[in-house]
């Protein structure tokens, strides 16, 4: 009942927000009435979503379910469904059920004492790309708003702890400490365009009202950042003066996530590499020991709260003390969206670190039965999933919907022939033989933009999907070239088309440049959210047609007031591989793919960003480079290739237990597990300056390594790899103990990394970029731990002197003595 209620509210709220994003003039009541007019179709389950959820309820209700916790039966549930089919709603429904069942079950017993399920992280959702994380964060926040309102209406059933959602990503995307967020807010209020990463949502997910820095408040006493809806009339419950005093239930500062343990955490897979360096992150897995009545769960490393004394009353806040607490129940559900992106070097690193994640999220019943988290993955393009899942999670895989004889009809999905009623998506291949690719890009872009304007003049809003051209490129270098062409050649051509072309001029380009956006890795994360929000703006027939332009010109001549608008929709959006997942903008219908993407999965995912609305067909134009044999081969087999799309998807490879992967990742694996599992102990290994306590906790860490070995053996299914990992763990544990002994002999204390305070401390770990080439010196930290799972080798900085004489100041030893004959002048 709770799941159905909050999912219904989430779907309605998301559509209200979408309506107000596409038409800013709509009031909240008008948007709600527009959604209500859709009837039951506004919020209803699809059969495959219900079936998938029902299949998982047993495992989520009974933590000891064999499908979740048994060594030989535990599986990863893989939701394999086409893009735009509704996978997100399926696993958000599972998340809502997980919130409810944990609150109802309350405190559960384990071999290590009671675990409180009324608080703590219930669901971990992980992505690989920050764009995907930002887009899904908006949708998941609407779910948490619905859950929080449901909790407030019945606190006796759902408890007093608020439902919150946390965004746990890199420091370039969101702040790490409260001071960073506070400084950002001060600068944003002084200089309006300042980058504000603490604000990750551009609109209220509940009502669609825009949110500006003015709606973000930093409270230094609570060390909290509050985000409110921008509704000035307080009609939204999450606005200032609304019924929810905290505002929107979002946490985007790392330290807040550690202290307040939100029920739902959305993270990038890279962030888990920080477990070895941030002892406070242990709270995400329920390993807490003390709680401050003002600040939440506090770790000894946390400097924002003095955990030895009480806080006096100040700024309207009552006096507060810290007190010991029991452990929280670890996450019950782990969601991995877009599984096909976990491959290659990144997949190898993730697969090895997954050993630590599952170990930290597991516990035992008093009767000895193990409890492991449920794992759900989803993708629309995958091949060889059994081997990939075994390498990543050490479990078998169950694919849903199940594979059947006729792929065109699985009962839950059916291929519908393209017709006028069901237009689908059309792919058109273009190969301009003998013409430079740049010239072909200019001509094709010109035709697509001008043809879109022609349709818009004739059909008005029905042609809106073809007014925004999405350009997809394989490399940023190619995209940058196209950006220059758009600002020059293309803009000139669409503004003044040839008379014999039959195309009208593009009004949007009449008074300046084309409105162009970009979705690439070089764009700041704070700008990506704004770009996605603006991408939802539709073209207005009363403003963007040539007839409307002529009417405005006539009014201007007559001295009448001419209508203006605050923000124009995008004419062109340029993107690289970042676009292929997570962009769900229903109005997009036109794409130009320049060059054949590197693999078929990327091509399917990227081209599926257009034509997502079943009533508005999508058009994908693939412009191949005739000088590239691969592009030409795909063009020659264009029809067959597209008719057998999913059969062409390449198999994925992950090798987390190869010798090189183990050598590179085993240090971080051991340190992360030890610091998290001992976080609730007063004299444990978790605090930054307690690395030396390995001499007292050696036996306890040996038990941790046994758990890690067991998990590796289950996933590797290779005796040699399992033995290699076991030997490495034993070796690293011995080196840790030796390092402690060496530090004591030098009169120093072993810490993890932050030495500071002169020469009193000796570090245990070091990042690859700081590691010396020759390892073995007395000051060289023995454990090399990467800051990110994408760091596959150290980076080398090349410094070039600006003084020409120094570039060749010294000839290498043994260099030949060149005697070149002097040239003769003509």
Automatic annotation (TrEMBL):
Keywords of the record: ATP-binding, Helicase, Hydrolase, Nucleotide-binding
The answer to whether UniProt assigns keyword Membrane to this entry is no
Tell me which residues make up the Helicase C-terminal domain.
489-653
Task: Specify the superkingdom.
Answer: Bacteria
- InterPro entries listed in its UniProt record: Helicase_C-like (IPR001650), P-loop_NTPase (IPR027417)
Q: Does the keyword ATP-binding apply?
A: yes
Give the molecular function GO annotations. Answer: helicase activity
What is this protein's name? Helicase
Q: Native species of this protein?
A: Mycobacterium simiae
């Amino acid at each position: 009942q709770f799941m159905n209620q909050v999912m219904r509210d989430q779907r309605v709220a998301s559509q209200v927000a979408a309506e107000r994003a596409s038409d800013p003039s709509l009031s909240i009541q008008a948007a709600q009435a527009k959604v209500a007019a859709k009837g039951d179709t506004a919020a209803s389950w699809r059969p495959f979503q219900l079936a998938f959820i029902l299949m998982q309820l047993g495992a989520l209700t009974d933590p000891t379910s064999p499908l979740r916790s048994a060594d030989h039966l535990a599986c990863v549930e893989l939701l394999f469904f086409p893009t735009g089919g509704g996978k997100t709603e399926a696993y958000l429904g599972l998340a809502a059920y997980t919130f409810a069942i944990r609150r109802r079950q309350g405190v559960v017993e384990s071999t290590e004492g009671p675990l409180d399920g009324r608080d703590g992280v219930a669901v971990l959702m992980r992505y690989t790309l920050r764009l995907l994380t930002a887009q899904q964060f908006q949708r998941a926040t609407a779910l948490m708003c619905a859950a929080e309102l449901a909790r407030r209406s019945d606190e006796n059933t759902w408890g007093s702890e608020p439902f919150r959602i946390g965004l746990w990503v890199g420091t370039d995307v969101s702040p790490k400490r409260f001071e960073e967020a506070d400084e950002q807010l001060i600068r944003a209020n002084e200089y309006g365009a300042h980058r504000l990463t603490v604000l990750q949502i551009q609109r209220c997910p509940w009502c669609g009202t825009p949110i500006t820095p003015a709606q973000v408040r930093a409270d230094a006493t609570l060390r909290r950042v509050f985000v409110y809806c921008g509704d000035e009339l307080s009609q939204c419950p999450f606005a200032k003066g609304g019924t929810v005093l905290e505002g929107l239930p979002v946490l985007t500062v790392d330290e807040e996530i550690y202290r307040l343990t939100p029920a739902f955490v959305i993270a990038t897979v890279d962030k888990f590499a920080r477990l070895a360096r941030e002892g406070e992150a242990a709270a995400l897995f329920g390993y807490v020991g003390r709680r401050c009545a003002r600040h939440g769960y506090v770790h000894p490393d946390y400097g924002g709260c003095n955990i030895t004394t009480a806080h006096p009353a100040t700024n309207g806040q009552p006096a507060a003390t810290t007190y010991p607490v029991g452990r929280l129940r670890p996450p019950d559900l782990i969601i991995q969206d877009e599984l096909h992106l976990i491959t290659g070097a990144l997949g190898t690193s993730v697969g090895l670190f997954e050993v630590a994640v599952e170990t930290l999220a597991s516990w035992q019943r008093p009767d000895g039965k193990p409890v492991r988290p449920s794992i759900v993955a989803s993708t629309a393009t995958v091949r060889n999933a059994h081997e990939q899942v075994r390498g990543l999670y050490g479990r078998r895989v169950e694919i849903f919907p199940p594979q059947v004889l006729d792929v065109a009809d699985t009962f839950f999905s059916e291929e519908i022939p393209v017709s006028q009623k069901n237009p689908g998506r059309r792919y058109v291949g273009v190969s301009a033989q003998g013409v430079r690719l740049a010239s072909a890009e200019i001509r094709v872009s010109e035709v697509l933009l001008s043809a879109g304007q022609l349709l818009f003049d004739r059909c008005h809003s029905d042609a809106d999907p073809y007014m925004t051209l999405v350009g997809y490129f394989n490399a940023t270098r190619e995209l940058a070239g196209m950006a220059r062409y758009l600002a020059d050649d293309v803009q000139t051509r669409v503004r003044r088309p040839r008379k014999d072309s039959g195309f009208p001029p593009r009004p949007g380009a009449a008074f300046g440049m084309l409105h162009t956006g970009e979705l690439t890795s070089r764009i700041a994360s704070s700008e990506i959210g704004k770009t996605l929000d603006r991408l939802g703006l539709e073209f207005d027939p009363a403003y963007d047609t040539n007839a409307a332009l002529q009417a405005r010109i006539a009014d201007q001549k007559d001295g009448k007031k001419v209508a203006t608008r605050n923000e124009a929709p995008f004419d062109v959006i340029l993107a690289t591989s970042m676009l292929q997942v997570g962009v769900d903008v229903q109005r997009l219908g036109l794409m130009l793919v320049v060059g054949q993407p590197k693999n078929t999965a990327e091509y399917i995912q990227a081209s599926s960003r257009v034509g997502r609305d079943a009533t508005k067909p999508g058009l994908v134009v693939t412009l191949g480079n005739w000088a590239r044999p691969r592009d030409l081969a795909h063009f020659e087999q264009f029809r067959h290739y597209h008719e057998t799309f999913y059969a062409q998807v390449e198999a994925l490879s992950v090798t987390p237990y190869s010798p090189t992967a183990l050598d590179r990742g085993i240090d971080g694996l051991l340190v992360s597990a030890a610091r998290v599992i001992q976080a609730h102990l007063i004299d444990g290994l978790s605090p930054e300056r307690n690395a030396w306590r390995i001499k007292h906790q050696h036996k306890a860490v040996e038990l941790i390594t046994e758990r890690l070995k067991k998990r590796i053996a289950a996933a590797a299914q290779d005796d040699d790899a399992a033995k290699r990992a076991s030997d490495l763990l034993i070796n690293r544990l011995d080196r840790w103990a030796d390092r402690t002994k060496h530090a004591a002999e030098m009169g120093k204390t072993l810490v993890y990394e932050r030495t500071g305070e002169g020469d009193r401390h000796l570090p245990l770990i070091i990042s690859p970029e700081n590691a010396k080439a020759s390892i073995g010196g007395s000051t060289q930290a023995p454990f090399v731990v990467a800051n990110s799972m994408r760091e596959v080798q150290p980076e080398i900085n090349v410094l070039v002197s600006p003084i020409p004489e120094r570039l060749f100041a010294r000839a290498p030893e043994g260099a030949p003595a060149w005697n070149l004959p002097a040239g003769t002048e003509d």
